[in-house]
Design goal:
It holds the Pfam family DUF58. This protein has about 290 residues and is α/β, with parallel strands linked by helices. It contains 10 helices and 13 strands. About 40% of the residues lie in helices and about 25% in strands.
């Protein structure tokens, strides 16, 4: 039986939470092995112009009269950068905890898993005043620094301006795994601009969109007005009268985001705050593992 979301989220110690969630399943956020020219054989593939001739399999050629390359598995560690939207909309509350609470716990769990696999991890909190940076490292003490920075990352203001992050992700020449956690609340395409910048560096990108049950279903109990957390604007609502139109527009908006992510080659997953996080992660990681086979 899966623990209720509120039960898991009640674990305030991020280190304990991460171990509780992750130790039950160790499938990995990256494959932890890439095809290369190591010692352990993986599979054959047809020769392509430009392939290293040293890896031709002459026995296969003798049997089939065709050229084949022997691919093998090479163990590798990577750098995993966590980018967390720390704008004020991440203070949205559903069932007693906020999107930022959810983001902290999600990153703690995945950061623990990456660290356990030997990957370097880093944290980038995007605030209105700038980017809070914890550079990627893999030493034994770094995971505790990671937890500490997550715990102290507080949402406020609007989304980060491009000038604050423009050069941060150009500091590495090797491919990285970038995990973004956001509610995708944007007013003028600022999150889309960030994704466009990141895609230009050809990193692998995973985007988790966090949303509350109350906003997905337009269920705010007896409340008749809502306040925009970033602008302070108040909107009167009559949920019974507008729910149908709201849900239709929400469906269109989410479909547009999925299409945008597909076109940019970004892995995307919508996470509901009322769904058990451990099950959501397990489903995502299992899907990711199948895609890598």
């Amino acid at each position: 039986m899966q623990p209720a979301p509120a039960t898991l989220m009640a674990i305030k110690d991020l280190s304990l939470f991460a171990k509780t969630v992750i130790d039950g399943f160790m499938t990995g956020i990256n494959k932890s092995a890439s095809k290369g020219t190591g010692l352990e054989f993986s599979q054959y593939r047809s020769y392509q112009p430009g392939d290293d001739l040293r890896w031709l399999d002459w026995k296969m050629y003798g049997r089939s009269d065709r050229y084949y390359i022997r691919e093998s598995e090479v163990e590798t560690s990577i750098s995993v950068r966590f980018i967390v939207d720390a704008s004020q909309s991440m203070e949205h509350n559903d069932n007693g905890y906020t999107k930022m609470d959810y983001a902290r716990h999600l990153c703690a769990a995945l950061g623990y898993l990456a660290h356990k696999q030997g990957d370097a991890i880093g944290l980038y909190g995007l605030t209105e005043k700038g980017v809070h940076v914890l550079a990627t490292r893999r030493d034994a003490q770094h995971l505790q620094r990671f937890y500490y920075q997550l715990e102290n990352l507080q949402p406020g203001g609007q989304f980060t301006a491009p000038g604050y992050y423009k050069n941060i992700f150009a500091t590495t020449s090797h491919k990285e795994l970038v995990i973004i956690v956001t509610d995708f609340y944007e007013r003028e395409g600022e999150i889309g601009q960030l994704l466009k910048e990141l895609s230009a560096y050809r990193h692998e990108i995973i985007l988790f969109q966090v949303m509350g049950r109350n906003e997905l279903e337009l269920d705010y109990g007896q409340y008749s007005s809502l306040q925009d957390l970033e602008t302070g604007e108040t909107v009167n609502i009559h949920a019974g009268q507008v729910r149908g139109l709201y849900l239709e527009r929400l469906k269109t908006w989410l479909a547009a985001i999925r299409q945008q992510m597909l076109e940019q080659g970004i892995s995307y997953r919508l996470l509901r705050m009322d769904a058990p996080m451990d099950q959501a992660l397990r489903d995502f990681l299992n899907q990711r593992q199948k895609m890598s086979i």
